[in-house]
Design goal:
Number of domains: 2
Strand content: 5-15%
Largest sheet: 5 strands, parallel
Helix content: 40-55%
Distance between the termini: 23 Å
Order of helices and strands: EHHHHHHHHEHEEEEHEHEHEHEHH
Radius of gyration: 23 Å
Strand order of the largest sheet: 5-2-1-9-10
Number of helices: 15
Structural class: alpha/beta
Length: about 400
């Protein structure tokens, strides 16, 4: 089993690198016209940009000028984290009497009022990012024959049954090329079992074959939602309490905690639906660890448990792979979880890095690889060409 770790460089130029993601989202939202999808694109998006540009917080205004969505989210996430901390302080004050509780509540309310706009901007930016990726997935189906996909298609042909792709990207480019090759299936291709039915209105079961190659999205992916607790036809309010039959639970394996959006599936050319999520949810946020230097990997939320499982699976795959190839991932120092995963689970003698940046190789990977399989700087296309030559020479 070979493991491939993909960063944004593997999906470029189909999808933008992280530094250009905000500009791409901005272009998409501006091109939508008078659209309302949880916020008013034509009215509220210009207000959002103006607020970021003129923010009294120099960190936020500079992040906006840089056009770096990861930096913008980092400042907004810090405000969100401080709000949570102030709530916890109220609980702590309860041990010191009513006066201290009132003081903690006053401080929390004052701070919450000051950063209300931070939370509002953060939500709209998350929604805009989700909408952008969902729309791009629909457009990719039409763009699939363009030359921009040549490298990924060659990569898809290279993969063999049992191989694992571990990706930090949100986009489904790898699934698309592997599906075209007959190597990826939505049944278990994301590392968890999904139950399918014919359509939203037809509950006839549909059985897909097992996936030959699995794709593990460690930061989540577009079209992923928390699996509903109950079947689409069961209303717990009408039930009125008491025991709940097993049939009331959402269809599919109990241990599966993710459901797949039907809009996303149609973008991949899959017209059956996840039986636990037969229609697009109107307001829930997708399961994605958005770009930020303050990525939340720990905690008690259900969505966190999903990522715990995926990261454990990835660590096991990397540790047991006969070969690991890291493609287009710059190993940013701020992404400490990814840094730890790669440095602890990858054997340097079985790991190669494909990156066009000599600086990234020398300053970020060399301390880890040292005398291992250290490769010269090359881009994705050059590496694919070298693999093609190796395979041709090995054939009798």
């Amino acid at each position: 089993m070979r493991a491939y770790v993909l960063g944004a460089g593997a999906s470029h130029p189909i999808y933008p690198l992280g530094s250009n993601l905000f500009a791409e989202i901005n272009q998409y939202i501006q091109g939508c016209g008078p659209c309302i999808n949880r916020f008013d694109y034509q009215k509220e998006w210009p207000e959002l940009k103006s607020w970021l540009e003129k923010s009294s917080n120099p960190l936020l205004s500079q992040a906006y000028r840089n056009g770096n969505i990861e930096e913008i989210f980092t400042v907004l996430d810090l405000a969100e984290s401080l709000i949570s901390d102030s709530l916890i302080s109220i609980l702590g004050a309860s041990k010191r009497g009513a006066a201290e509780v009132q003081r903690a509540e006053d401080l929390h309310n004052s701070f919450a009022s000051e950063v209300k706009e931070y939370r509002d901007i953060r939500s709209k930016l998350l929604w805009a990012m989700e909408a952008y990726f969902l729309q791009r997935n629909q457009e990719d189906d039409k763009d699939f024959k363009s030359s921009r996909w040549d490298h990924l298609k060659r990569f898809g042909r290279l993969l063999e049954p049992g191989d694992i792709v571990i990706t930090f990207n949100y986009d489904p480019t790898v699934e698309r090329v592997l599906s075209a090759e007959g190597k990826w299936s939505p049944r278990d291709g994301y590392g968890f079992e999904v139950t399918f039915q014919e359509s939203r209105y037809d509950e006839t079961p549909v059985l897909y074959p097992p996936s030959e190659v699995k794709v593990l999205h460690l930061h989540g992916a577009i079209g992923w939602y928390r699996k509903p607790a109950f079947s689409p036809h069961f209303d717990p309010v009408k039930k009125g309490g008491g025991s709940i039959p097993r049939s009331a639970s959402a269809p599919g394996a109990i241990e599966t905690e993710i459901a797949i959006d039907p809009l996303f599936l149609t973008g991949l050319g899959i017209y059956h639906v996840d039986a636990s999520l037969p229609q697009h949810p109107p307001s829930e946020e997708q399961l994605m660890i958005h770009p930020s230097f303050l990525k939340q990997y720990g905690g008690e939320g259900e969505e966190i448990q999903v990522f715990n499982k995926l990261w454990r699976m990835a660590a096991s795959c990397l540790a047991n792979a006969s070969e690991v190839v890291i493609i287009g991932y710059s190993l940013p120092p701020a992404d400490s979880a990814a840094w730890t995963l790669i440095h602890t689970a990858c054997d340097r003698q079985r790991t190669a890095v494909v990156n066009r940046s000599k600086s990234v190789l020398q300053n970020r990977y060399w301390p880890f690889l040292k005398q291992g399989r250290f490769t010269p700087n090359m881009d994705f296309g050059a590496w694919l060409e070298s693999k093609h030559r190796q395979m041709a020479q090995s054939q009798p």
